[in-house]
Amino acid sequence: MSTDKTGFEVPEQMRDFAEKSVDQARKAFDDFMGATQKAVVNVEDSANAMQAGAADVNKKALTYAEEHVTAAFKFAQDLVKADNVEDMMKLQQDYLRNQMETLGEQTREFSNSATKAVQDATKAAQKK
């Protein structure tokens, strides 16, 4: 035990207690920082998985838009070549039917891509 100039003495037990408290606080802080770093990595992995999924959906959207524009131009070309009103009506019917079928397929593909992106992000978050 030491004595300072004022005559006040700090008991050894108080010093031990203070030292243990500081050590425990340091360990708690280190644990907190480790958990925080792990959470940041999980968020980054999830974000990367979502970005990859979003990129896939964006590519699909552009491909679908191109398909629709191509189909519209083909319809317009066929329409111009039609000989009579009946042929024009048949072309329009076929075009609309094909577009509705295509939209249904594309909607299913979009849904599947979005679901996969969410699942991948969830797996990435749970992996850590």
Low-confidence stretches: none
Structural class: mainly alpha
Query: What portion of residues belong to β-strands?
Result: under 5%
Give the oligomeric state of the chains in this entry, treating copies of one chain as homo and distinct chains as hetero.
single chain
Determine the fraction of residues in helical runs and give it as a percent range.
Answer: over 70%
Number of domains: 1
Large-scale geometry: rod-shaped
> Major beta sheet, specifics?
none
Report Rg.
Answer: 34 Å
How many strands? 0
Write the layout of secondary structure elements.
Blueprint: H1 12-81, H2 85-127
Helix pairs in contact: 1-2
Detailed description of the structure:
- α1 runs antiparallel to α2.
- By secondary structure, the chain is mostly helical.
- It is 88% helix and 0% strand.
- This is Phasin family protein.
- InterPro entries: Phasin.
- Residues 31-127 form the Phasin domain.
Question: How would you sum up this structure in a few lines?
Answer:
The chain has two helices and no strands. The chain is mostly helical and 128 residues long.
List keywords for this structure.
single chain; 128 residues; mainly alpha; 88% helix; rod-shaped; Phasin
